[in-house]
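2024-03-11 09:14:02 DEBUG pipeline.ingest accepted 1 chain
2024-03-11 09:14:02 DEBUG pipeline.ingest length=301
2024-03-11 09:14:03 DEBUG pipeline.predict start
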Amino acid sequence: MVDTSVNLCGITLQNPVIPASGTFGFGLEMAEFYDLNVLGAIAIKGTTVAPRLGNPSPRIAECTQGLLNSIGLQNPGAEQVVKEEIPNLRMHFRQPIIGNICGFSVDDYRECCRIVAPNVDLVELNISCPNVHNGGMAFGTTERGAAEVVTAVRDVCDRPLFVKLSPNVTDIVSIAKTCENAGADGLTLINTLLGMRIDIRRRVPVLAQKMGGFSGPAVFPVALRMVYQVHKVCSLPIIGCGGVQSAEDVIEMMMAGATAVQVGSENLRNPYACPDIIKHLPERMKQLKINNLNQIIGIIE
């Protein structure tokens, strides 16, 4: 019998597999496909203080081994999320819920966290969204911006605080260390890379916003490298994210330094991606003679 459980800041997950924010809605959309309670946790859709309609269409573009998205944080707003979305999910889901907090100013982040944090088990501070202007990724691309937001949110957050980092930087390690020093309890990496597609017949960008977040299997080696680099210098637990689509990918991420792993765009291609990975994980562990996943976290020198 193998042990697939992991621990994030005192919160036990029965397995390390978590649907990534933005690829799973608020959870219940997927309940018709399978019992959500097989999951380790759920990271709900990115939430802002005020409701948002998101970016204009088209906001999805296909790519080789991935996709571009420019959704733009479409959500009903923090008050509605805590009034309806989270309680509705709690009725069907007994595992931990991760709230993904977004904003356009330090005060936005702080207020959104104040509203959402008491209603979730863990907060994921999204300072890395590439699909909105004047916020999101702007804070996550400098040490100063990251420190400012983390410090402000830490003051109102009584839940474990994970910071979701952007890969669209020169040195993700320095920003990770800054978040650690500012009071973060953990890190999620990576968010999407910034990409673009052009319709050569119409001679215009495919996305209405021209550029969007690139995700999918093609980004896995980049995400893995960044998890490895950050784990080597930070003592915080890491949730690895980026191109994960199999049990082998989960194990690889954990060997690089992740304690848990998020599955993102693969959910959009295959609604059963997470339960499939969870089903095959114990089998693959046995084949690799891994009795306990905690034994392999960050074992690569």
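2024-03-11 09:14:41 DEBUG pipeline.report The first helix runs from residue 78 to 90.
2024-03-11 09:14:41 DEBUG pipeline.predict end
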